[in-house]
Amino acid sequence: MATLSxxxxxGTVTGSCSMVETDxxxxxxxxxxxxxxxxIRALNDxxxxxxxxxxxxxxxxxxxxxxxxxxPKLIKYGFDKPIYATQPTTDLLTFMLKDSARIQxxxxxxxxxxxxxxxxxxxxxxxxxxxxxxxxxxxxxxGYDEWFEPSKDIEVRFWNAGHILGSASAEIKFPDENGHxxxxxxxxxxxxxxxxxxxxxxxxxxxxxxxxxxxxGDRDRDDYTLVKRRQMLKAxxxxxxxxxxxxxxxxxxxxxxxxxxxxIGVLLASGELPHATVFLDSPLAKNVTDVFIKHAHTLxxxxxxxxxxxxxxxxxxxxxxxxxxxxxxxxxGAIIISASGMADAGRIQHHIKNNIYKRNCTMLFVGYQAPGxxxxxxxxxxxxxxxHGKEYDVNAEIRRLGxxxxxxxxxxxxxxxxxxxxxxxxxxxxHGDDDARSELKKLLAKKGIEEDMIHMPQFDETFELxxxxxxxxxxxxxxxxxxxxxxxxxELLTDWNNDYAAFIVALSGRLNEAKSDQERxxxxxxxxxxx
Length: 531
Ligand SMILES: [Zn+2]
Fold this sequence. Notes:
The chain has about 525 residues and is α/β, with parallel strands linked by helices. It has 3 domains: about 1-220 and about 405-490, 4-Layer Sandwich (Metallo-beta-lactamase, Chain A), CATH 3.60.15; about 225-400, Rossmann fold (3-Layer(aba) Sandwich), CATH 3.40.50.10890; about 505-530, no CATH class. It is about 30% helix and about 20% strand. It contains 15 helices and 23 strands. The protein has helices spanning about 40, 65-70, 70-75, 85-115, 130-135, 225-240, 255-270, 285-295, 320-325, 350-355, 375-380, 410-420, 435-445, 495-515, 515-530, and strands at about 1-5, 20, 25-30, 55-60, 85, 140, 150, 155-160, 170-175, 180-185, 205-215, 245-250, 275-280, 315-320, 335-340, 360-365, 385, 390-395, 395-400, 425-430, 455, 460-465, 475-480. The chain has an 8-stranded mixed β-sheet with strand order 6-5-4-3-2-1-22-23. A 7-stranded mixed β-sheet has the order 7-8-9-10-11-20-21, with helices on one face. A 6-stranded parallel β-sheet has the order 14-13-15-12-16-19, with helices on both faces. It binds zinc ion.
């Protein structure tokens, strides 16, 4: 009997981690960090709901931290077996896990300072650079469409998932106790059809079970082409630069920064953009860009003959703090790309501080901004923002470009799933909130996948799987329950901290709008009465 457990990304989009157990062999698919509200992040500090040293191997779909970020914690808990991924993924991990460890270590220093003031003992960081380095000797890489055997009778191959450099879906087959061959496909994160660098996602057909992501299960984007998107970027940049100030772009270090550099490089080379100096100010993004250059021969839609990728004479890939600070002296005509993508940490905050109060500057947001992040506050129309304890007026032009996405939208997810049919045993929708999953489930049922074959696994839920028998279609899945609750379901997306932040924002808005101090006092008295 084989079982499948969902230890993360069930009803939410972070902390991807699933386990398959067959014939005494246990393996994980991804081991990602929980991100989002404080309650869900606290799960990172808890013990794993399994014994790390009992796991026989791990299959990693891609390098994003919400899929790979707890690998160093696995090492800390005694895991020492092979980790399989594509080569670009293993190359990216070298930089990303060390960067993540440094973030954990500096977070822990700050937390321990606060604890010391309260007379509390210091706590260890989630993991250290040493734990991250412990991951690297375990990494083994395989190319797309190449079968390998991580354990006797268990075969695996990767398919291009078109999401980020090196991203893969994982096809797994092994015999069940009746001698049938069980075929399972984990989608990993699926990319959109129109994406620079990567061909559209692929895969085999005919599976017993498919585990599919559903991030945008309830969202359809406007259709766009790479050329159209580049033209929209051009319009934003021309607009921003002609105002005389700088254009500041918060961007994720992996993939988004390289997409922007590539698009800007194409626009500069064709003379469609006025001369501008382009800074990529993020040490991680610079290292990741080098990994892209290493794998340039595998990328789509780029001309690599002259080794010009990311090498325009106007580009400055900044590493040192001194170089980064020197950018502050530039008053206009620069495009500054920096991480983090949601402006909640990193060097981008310095660039925002230096430009957001200036009327001739532009803040251009090109990615999703999660509630509670500085990026969300700015894009929600705040008149002033607090950064590093100081308040700055928002006078710059705030602009958004919504069509840079690394995820398939609703229509593309449905297409990817239905193209993998027939599905004999069942389809599990994970990596999506319940609204996205329910909507996707409804639409897939209309496309002919029986509704009782589509499952929305809950946090820590385990299922018993039997190889697909067309006669017992859909009934081959049995839930074995979910184990002790680690997080209340209604706190997967937002928790009381989010409610509190929203309340404070609403309150200060009401106080600002009030016509008199008397009205303000009345409002506060009314609220105090409820305490
Ligand atoms: Zn991803």
